[in-house]
Amino acid sequence: MNGTHRATVTTSRDEAEIRRLMVEQEAGMKAHDAERLVARYAPDAVVFDLAPPLAYRAPELLDPDGVRNWFAGFERSVDYEIRDLTVTAGEDVAFCHSLHRLSATPRGTTDRFDLWFRVTTGMRKVDGAWRVTHEHKSTPFYMDGSFKAAIDLRP
Amino acid sequence: MNGTHRATVTTSRDEAEIRRLMVEQEAGMKAHDAERLVARYAPDAVVFDLAPPLAYRAPELLDPDGVRNWFAGFERSVDYEIRDLTVTAGEDVAFCHSLHRLSATPRGTTDRFDLWFRVTTGMRKVDGAWRVTHEHKSTPFYMDGSFKAAIDLRP
Fold first, then answer.
1. Which of A78, A151, B18, B58 has an alpha carbon within 20 to 30 A of B123's alpha carbon?
2. Is the overall model pTM greater than 0.90, yes or no?
């Protein structure tokens, strides 16, 4: 289910640039490259992340030190995979949804985990270049009274 | 922070229709109107919901009986509120992000809860009418080892 809904005025160049922005995330995570990861965002981006609070914005969102601190919590070799990417693209507005896998080992442990989560990415073309203006990452949670995040799901 | 990023070709009629689709959700929830809620979705919509699995699609997504069963789990008078709606709209592709509050009382209890969660909505104009083709609802979860959904956050 890797698909594209192409609006009337979308060019293949737009589509390639949109997909490249998603691959940047995968590549930046694998390379532990904080600058590369924050460079995807427009200055006014709003991100709903896996961890609280409800929303992240600049300046925190655009600070590579925050990402570096996050990487420092893991042993080397974070792995990252994007699956089922579906792109809906117009002339200057686009959104994607996909399933992402983060595999990592918390520092000081040997407990490697695989976490699958859902990602929705909103993009705008700003001065001719596509940038991420919104991102929403999440797991669902169990409604069995435990209110536990569903971190054991597989696509 | 109720804003609109208007792409060059967006009309105020498009914007009004996009906002109407969000109000439909609020109104449909307050009215316990299952048909009204499922009518917002395009046939190929993909929804990342608060509860597992990772994704919902037709036919399950478009079945008003599923929504009716969900309402049946609560005492009368579900309340619903949408806050901080930000719309990014192009000619035929748009996305919104917002914070939603669901207040309800599980049937057979007096334990009324207020749950705030994040919502991202993707829309396409299909045959001249805006429809929801993607929706992502979530809470973050606590990364303190508990993996509990963060159901106590307030905007």
1. A151
2. yes
